[in-house]
């Protein structure tokens, strides 16, 4: 048996175990789809799609986690980030670098073939993010499902709601609190892609790099992100041994003044968040803590019961789909 095939088999077996007996948590529950698609296991189907992408491009795992965060932070975890349109969330400035839409499309196609009109796009994002965390080495947690899909997607709301590159630590804490999330959740989840160029080339208009950043890191990032470059990609985790692994080295680097983003270093210097950074940097249970934060994120502003809808296509609301079919 090939190594990749064996790994996928192990992952799917684990997901079958995790999607076992239902466990209720408020409006959502673990195992919501059990028995709703005959003998098929929805989470294992999604896991197969994500696993296949993992062996093709491991960097997409971080994209799926980020996709979940950006969806939940704007009007709740309702799959609205997936909707196409000239003024949809996809077109918002903070979402221009978001990836992973095609993976959710593939997962939707796979489950629709087995049980059409049952599994929400919002749940597909949450399940895919859970699988991405596991495949990134961040441990496994039982994902709650039962979300419904939203009907509205607004770039304007996304532009004012998603944390921006100039956000301060107090503003970030307040933004997360507005979603019912704690400062610890914020520190665990805030790893995002903000503007890096100004920090390493022209910090606050000085023409110099941010003085709080370690000089070796400045030099490394400048070599990867030359001034006036149109597009650059850099890992937030500057640990050369685990750049694509979800672990606590990100927090260890912040304490060493090697944080990539401005907010990274501010988290390490702020009197409220520095103890959190230090605790996570030395934490032996980081995977469990990150998983718990993801569960709390996944419960933000969800639609359940008869709210919203179950989209046939994740990119358009059902009214538009039915109109196209009748036309």
From TrEMBL:
Substrate binds at residue 163. Its EC number is 1.11.1.7. Residues 1-26 form the signal peptide. One of its GO terms (molecular function) is metal ion binding. The active site is at 70 (proton acceptor). Its main location: secreted. Removal of H(2)O(2), oxidation of toxic reductants, biosynthesis and degradation of lignin, suberization, auxin catabolism, response to environmental stresses such as wounding, pathogen attack and oxidative stress. These functions might be dependent on each isozyme/isoform in each plant tissue. This is Peroxidase. It comes from Linum tenue. The keyword Signal applies. Residues 27-318 form the Plant heme peroxidase family profile domain. Ca(2+) 2 binds at residues 237, 247. Belongs to the peroxidase family. Classical plant (class III) peroxidase subfamily. GO terms for biological process: hydrogen peroxide catabolic process; response to oxidative stress. Keywords: Calcium, Disulfide bond, Glycoprotein, Heme, Hydrogen peroxide, Iron, Metal-binding, Oxidoreductase, Peroxidase, Secreted, Signal. GO terms for cellular component: extracellular region.
């Amino acid at each position: 048996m090939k190594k990749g095939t064996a790994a996928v088999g192990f992952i799917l077996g684990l997901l079958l175990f995790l999607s076992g007996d239902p466990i209720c948590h408020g409006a959502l529950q673990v195992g919501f789809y059990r028995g709703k698609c005959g003998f098929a296991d929805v989470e294992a189907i999604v896991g197969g799609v994500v696993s296949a992408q993992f062996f093709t491009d491991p960097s997409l795992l971080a994209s799926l986690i980020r996709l979940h965060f950006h969806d939940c932070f704007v009007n709740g975890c309702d799959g609205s980030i997936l909707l196409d349109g000239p003024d949809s969330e996809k077109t918002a400035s903070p979402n221009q670098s978001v990836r992973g839409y095609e993976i959710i499309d593939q997962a939707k196609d796979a489950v629709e073939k087995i049980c059409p009109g049952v599994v929400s796009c919002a749940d597909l994002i949450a399940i895919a993010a859970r699988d991405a965390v596991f495949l990134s080495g961040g441990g496994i947690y039982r994902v709650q499902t039962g979300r419904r899909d939203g009907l509205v997607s607004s770039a304007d709301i996304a532009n004012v709601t998603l944390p921006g590159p100039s956000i301060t630590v107090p503003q970030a804490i307040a933004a997360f609190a507005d979603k019912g999330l704690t400062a610890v959740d914020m520190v665990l989840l805030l790893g995002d892609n903000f503007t890096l160029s100004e920090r390493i080339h022209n910090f606050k208009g000085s023409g110099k790099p941010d003085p709080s950043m370690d000089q070796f890191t400045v030099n490394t990032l400048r070599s990867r992100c030359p001034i006036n470059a149109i597009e650059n990609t850099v890992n937030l985790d500057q640990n050369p041994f685990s750049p694509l692994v979800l672990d606590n080295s990100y927090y260890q680097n912040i304490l060493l003044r090697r944080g990539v983003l401005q907010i990274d270093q501010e988290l390490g210097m702020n009197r409220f968040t520095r103890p959190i950074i230090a605790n996570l940097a030395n934490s032996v249970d980081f995977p469990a803590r990150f998983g718990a934060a993801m569960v709390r994120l996944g419960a933000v502003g969800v639609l359940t019961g008869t709210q919203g809808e179950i989209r046939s296509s994740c990119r358009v609301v059902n009214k538009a789909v039915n109109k196209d079919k009748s036309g």
